[in-house]
């Protein structure tokens, strides 16, 4: 299986710097030689060519890659590095300023690694390609094991559904440490063989500029599309594109409609998770329906189940928990066999935790989440428990409850209710920011006298809203 495809000619450009495929492969082969045999390798995943070289190096070496969000705070970073047992860390020279503690992995500046000769990727069969850390409802993020075959299956299904070919020029500016930006947005381009233009950050003007330079296929999270709509000139520049794709969070119907009106393209929506990669999507050659995420991709099976475990009819109305079986399924949570077991039903279906309705024609609509403890803000998945724990680490905080509340630009924002003595809201936001990634810090903190609890003593978050 040649995960990276075999394009003869291809350019990867990030934030204005470009690399030809041949050079990328030679530099990645050099990295592969350097890290060969490691248990796992962390990559300081800035939006840069060095990140792409490092990640491809990991794949060529058959070493699981652990993308480290560049703004992750010390607590988060220590957890990811310790849990994954990454003994090496690849970063652009001078870019990583991580802790100086003795537990830090040995740093290898990607720029200093000499280019190598091509390596045979087939040798590594179906090894783990990535350990992607993602938030659960409680506790620190879990490492999601993603195999090479899951990625290959996921990318091939998307290429088919979106008619994605080497003639496309893929454009996006998403972070390179999640499935969307990294697996779809980088490995997808490499496997399909389409050039990639990464805009550094996903700004409307940058998407417009890339469109006028020949970009055809654009990826964004709903916040990006909403910002594109707010910049009408930028939106109109996308008229020449072939396909606009939205995912990672619900695309509000008004944004869908506005985007279609301004660009002439009804966006293709698709649904997925870090654990399952993308499983449901609209098609390039089919309908696009606002508020809907499409049909199961080839090889994917879905079902809806009521709370009591009974099947839910596909009438387009009745909601149920979405269960999935798919060739792009993850291989479990690293070091967490109980969590892995709990995420599957006894008959082998993955419980997504999303509530959906499915029409008689198979079209899926995501209507919500089973738990209030997973927040989606700007397309980032944030576990309420992780933010609550960060708040509780402050000596003045006695109780904390975190939830997602509606936000016009980000979909949801992180909102905290805190019982504390002698500390103000601003200080608590900074305190979380010192520990966790920027997007995990609360946008607002409400200091309250007590939290609403049920008879069991559990906080009733729905009463906080
Ligand atoms: C953030 N800021 C804050 C706070 N939070 N300032 C004060 N108080 C806070 N509580 C700062 C930020 O650091 C930033 O500063 C500035 O405010 C603006 O932040 P924000 O509004 O969040 O905008 P942004 O930084 O422009 O980010 C919006 C974004 C971003 C570009 C849409 O959220 C993003 O990249 N999202 C993509 C997430 C993603 O890729 N998810 C995929 C996972 P400064 O400007 O100084 O930096 S999902 C997945 O992989 C699956 C499988 C799938 O389905 O795709
Ligand atoms: P992550 O693992 O960060 O990809 O987060 C996965 C979650 O994002 C899913 O369980 C959904 O709740 C949400 N999600 C992803 N794509 C969509 C979409 N197109 N519409 C609604 N929710 C989505």
List the helices and strands and how they pair.
Layout: E1 11-14, E2 17-20, H1 21-35, E3 41-44, H2 49-61, E4 65-68, H3 74-84, E5 88-91, E6 106-109, E7 128-134, E8 142-147, H4 148-162, E9 170-172, H5 179-192, E10 196-198, H6 204-212, E11 217-220, H7 222-230, H8 232-237, E12 243-246, H9 253-263, E13 268-273, E14 277-281, E15 295-296, E16 301-305, E17 320-325, H10 337-342, E18 350-358, E19 364-369, E20 374-377, E21 380-383, H11 384-392, E22 397-407, E23 411-420, H12 425-433, E24 444-447
Parallel strand pairs: 1-10, 3-4, 3-5, 5-6, 9-10, 9-11, 11-12, 12-13, 23-24
Antiparallel strand pairs: 1-2, 7-8, 13-14, 14-15, 16-17, 17-18, 18-19, 20-21, 22-23
Helix pairs in contact: 1-2, 4-5, 7-9
Your description of this structure?
The protein has 465 residues and is an alpha/beta fold. Among the domains are: 11-161, Rossmann fold (3-Layer(aba) Sandwich); 374-463, 2-Layer Sandwich (GMP Synthetase, Chain A, domain 3), CATH 3.30.300.30. 27% of the residues lie in helices and 26% in strands. It contains 12 helices and 24 strands. It has helices at residues 21-35, 49-61, 74-84, 148-162, 179-192, 204-212, 222-230, 232-237, 253-263, 337-342, 384-392, 425-433, and strands at residues 11-14, 17-20, 41-44, 65-68, 88-91, 106-109, 128-134, 142-147, 170-172, 196-198, 217-220, 243-246, 268-273, 277-281, 295-296, 301-305, 320-325, 350-358, 364-369, 374-377, 380-383, 397-407, 411-420, 444-447. A 9-stranded mixed sheet has the order 2-1-10-9-11-12-13-14-15, with helices on both faces. Strands 4-3-5-6 form a 4-stranded parallel sheet, with helices on both faces. Strands 16-17-18-19 form a 4-stranded antiparallel sheet, with no helix packed on it. Strand 12, helix 9 and strand 13 (268-273) form a beta-alpha-beta unit. Helix 1 packs across helix 2 and helix 4 (148-162) packs across helix 5 (179-192). The longest helix is centred in the N-terminal third of the chain and has 15 residues, at 21-35. The relative contact order is 0.10. The mean pLDDT is 95. Methylmalonyl-coenzyme A (MCA) is lined by residues 174-175, 178-181, 202, 221, 223-224, 247-248, 272-274, 378-380, 429, 438-439, 441-443.
């Amino acid at each position: 299986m040649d995960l990276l495809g075999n394009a003869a000619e291809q350019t990867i450009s990030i934030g204005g710097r470009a690399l030809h495929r041949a050079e990328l492969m030679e530099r990645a082969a050099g990295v592969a030689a350097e890290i060969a045999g490691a248990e796992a390798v962390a990559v300081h995943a800035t939006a840069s060519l060095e990140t792409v070289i490092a990640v491809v190096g990991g794949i060529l070496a058959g070493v699981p890659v652990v993308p480290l969000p560049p703004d992750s705070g010390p607590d988060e970073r220590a957890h990811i590095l310790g849990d994954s047992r990454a003994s090496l860390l690849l970063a652009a020279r001078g870019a990583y300023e991580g802790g100086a503690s003795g537990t830090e992995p040995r740093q290898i500046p990607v720029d200093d690694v000499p280019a190598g000769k091509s390596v045979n990727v087939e040798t590594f069969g179906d090894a783990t390609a990535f350990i992607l850390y993602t938030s659960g409802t409680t506790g620190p993020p879990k490492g999601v094991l993603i195999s090479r075959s899951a990625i290959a299956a996921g990318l091939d299904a998307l290429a088919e559904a979106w008619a994605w070919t080497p003639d496309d020029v893929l454009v996006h500016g998403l972070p390179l440490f999640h499935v969307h930006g990294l697996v779809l947005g980088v490995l997808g381009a490499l496997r399909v063989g389409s050039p990639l233009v990464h805009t550094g950050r996903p700004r409307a003007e940058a998407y417009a500029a890339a469109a006028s330079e020949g970009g055809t296929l654009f990826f964004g999270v709903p916040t990006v599309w909403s910002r594109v709509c707010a910049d009408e000139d930028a939106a109109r520049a996308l008229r020449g594109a072939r396909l606009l794709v939205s995912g990672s969070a619900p695309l509000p119907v008004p944004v869908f409609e506005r985007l279609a009106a301004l660009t002439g393209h009804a966006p293709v929506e698709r649904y997925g998770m870090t654990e399952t990669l993308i499983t449901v999507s609209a098609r390039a050659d089919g309908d696009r329906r606002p508020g809907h995420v499409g049909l199961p991709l080839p090889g994917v099976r879905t079902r809806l189940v009521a709370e009591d475990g009974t099947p839910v009819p596909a009438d387009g109305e009745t909601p149920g928990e979405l269960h999935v079986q798919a060739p792009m399924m993850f291989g479990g949570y690293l070091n967490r066999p109980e969590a892995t077991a709990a995420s599957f039903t006894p008959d082998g279906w993955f419980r997504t935790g999303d509530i959906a309705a499915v029409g008689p024609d198979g079209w899926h609509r995501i209507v919500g989440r089973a738990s209030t403890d997973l927040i989606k803000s700007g397309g980032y998945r944030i576990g309420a428990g992780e933010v609550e724990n960060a708040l509780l680490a402050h000596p003045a905080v006695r109780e904390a409850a975190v939830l997602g509340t509606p936000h016009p630009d980000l979909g949801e924002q992180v909102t905290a209710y805190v019982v504390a003595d002698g500390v103000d809201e601003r200080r608590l936001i900074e305190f979380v920011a010192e520990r966790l990634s920027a997007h995990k810090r609360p946008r607002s903190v409400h200091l309250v006298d007590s939290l609403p609890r049920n008879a069991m003593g559990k906080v009733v978050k729905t009463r906080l809203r």
